[in-house]
Specification:
Blueprint: E1 9-13, E2 19-30, E3 33-40, H1 45-50, E4 56-63, E5 66-71, H2 75-95, H3 98-102
Antiparallel strand pairs: 1-2, 2-3, 3-4, 4-5
C-alpha cells in the first residue's frame, strides 16, 4: 500500500546548535507576516505519548539574505495567530472525519 501522506519536515537549530525536527502543520501569510505552525517530531513512540501535544508558532523573517524562523514574542499576535491556526485545523479535520460523513 502506498503512503498517500508524507509529512513536510523542517529541521531548526536552537541557540546551542542543537537540531530539532518539526512537521509543518500549516503556514499562513497575512499583513503581520508569514507564520508556521510546527509540531515536534519524536524519535520514539514513547516520547510522542509523553509529549504535551503542543505545537509551536514561528515567524519567517529575512536575516542576512536568508529566511529564518523565529519565535513570536508578541503575546497578542501569538494569540491571534493561534486562533487562526486552530480554525484551520478544525476545517482540515472536519473535512477528513469519516465518522461525520456516515452520520
Amino acid at each position: 500500500m502506498d503512503n498517500e501522506y508524507a509529512a513536510d519536515l523542517i529541521t531548526l537549530l536552537d541557540e546551542e546548535d542543537n537540531e530539532h525536527t518539526f512537521e509543518i502543520l500549516d503556514v499562513i501569510e497575512n499583513d503581520d507576516g508569514v507564520f508556521y505552525a510546527l509540531y515536534p517530531v519524536f524519535e520514539t513512540p514513547e516520547e510522542q505519548v509523553e509529549s504535551d501535544g503542543e505545537y509551536y508558532i514561528f515567524e519567517a523573517v529575512e536575516e542576512d539574505g536568508e529566511e529564518v524562523l523565529t519565535e513570536v514574542e508578541d503575546e497578542d499576535l501569538l494569540s491571534k495567530l493561534a486562533e487562526i491556526f486552530e480554525s484551520h485545523f478544525e476545517e482540515i479535520y472536519d473535512e477528513n472525519d469519516p465518522e461525520e460523513e456516515s452520520l
